[in-house]
Specification:
Number of helices: 5
Order of helices and strands: EHEHEHEHEH
Structural class: alpha/beta
Low-confidence stretches: 137-143
Helix content: 40-55%
Strand order of the largest sheet: 2-1-3-4-5
């Protein structure tokens, strides 16, 4: 189980379904919801200002299509402003798009774990659990 999960998505129904899946399947202990990329950047700014007093999430589920600031814009800004500060935070992009270019673009960001099609399922959570466990072992070797 991961300690902190952040969901950045503007669709209330999908967010509620993800929260239920995450809690009922013991995927995440704490779930925070943000409605768009701007709120996401503000959240990471608060974490940065806290100077390690608050821990960064292990995983962010990020919708690609949102108002004000979409997932792509958020990823670009996060990569420039916060990636060095929060290297252990992974991103799983969520989309309803079937554009094959999205997958290529997603993997151009080294913080992206996976691009998954909505709706999120238990199978997706199992994949992410396995990936994060393996990634944790990789980070241990780097230290």
């Amino acid at each position: 189980m991961i300690r902190d999960l952040v969901i950045i998505d503007d669709n209330d129904l999908e967010v509620e379904l993800i929260k239920i899946l995450a809690v009922d399947n013991h995927f995440a202990e704490n779930v925070r919801v943000l409605n768009n990329g701007r709120e996401g950047l503000a959240y990471f700014e608060v974490l940065k200002a806290a100077g390690g007093k608050r821990s960064a999430p292990e995983l962010v589920l990020l919708d690609l299509h949102m108002p004000l600031m979409d997932g792509w814009e958020f990823l670009e800004a996060f990569s420039l402003l916060y990636r060095d500060r929060f290297p252990d935070t992974g991103f799983c992009l969520l989309t309803s798009s079937v554009n094959p270019q999205d997958k290529l673009k997603a993997y151009s960001y080294n913080c992206v774990v996976e691009l998954l099609n909505k709706p999120l399922t238990v199978r997706h959570l199992n994949f992410l659990t396995k990936f994060l466990a393996e990634r944790g072992r990789l980070f241990e070797r780097k230290i």
